[in-house]
Specification:
By secondary structure, the protein is an alpha/beta fold. The protein is 31% helix and 23% strand.
Length: 121
């Protein structure tokens, strides 16, 4: 797969979605959409077909880890990165999936190698 340019941000915190979208934009990604729940995330992914998805582990209305695995298995195989405010929200065996590329705590996102993780470089 070539460089990732399109990203969908799924998080129930509107302020974080906006921050993440700005940060990803500054890194050269195009944020094609935002969603605040599992259902909205599924619908946005199906409609927008992003090359990568940033997913909050602790969505208010659903399981972000299960959603991440579901999204990673979509026919176009987007790269999925999990995030959370909780440093221990995800165990290593919970992200072991071909399309789920890892977990980055929200506070570490600004310094994380997002281009590498999301496939942009």
């Amino acid at each position: 797969m070539g460089a990732v340019t399109t990203v969908l941000v799924i998080d129930d915190d509107a302020a974080f979605r906006g921050l993440a979208a700005r940060m990803l934009g500054e890194l050269g990604f195009t944020v094609v959409g935002e969603a605040d729940s599992v259902e909205a995330g599924r619908a946005a992914a199906a409609e927008l077909r992003p090359q990568a998805v940033l997913v909050d582990v602790m969505l208010a209305a659903g399981d972000g880890i299960a959603l991440a695995h579901e999204l990673a298995e979509l026919p176009w195989h987007p790269r999925v990165l999990l995030t959370s405010t909780s440093l221990d929200a995800v165990l290593a065996d919970q992200i072991a999936s071909d399309g789920v590329v890892g977990f980055v705590p929200k506070e570490d996102l600004p310094g994380a190698p997002l281009a590498r993780l999301l496939g942009g470089a």
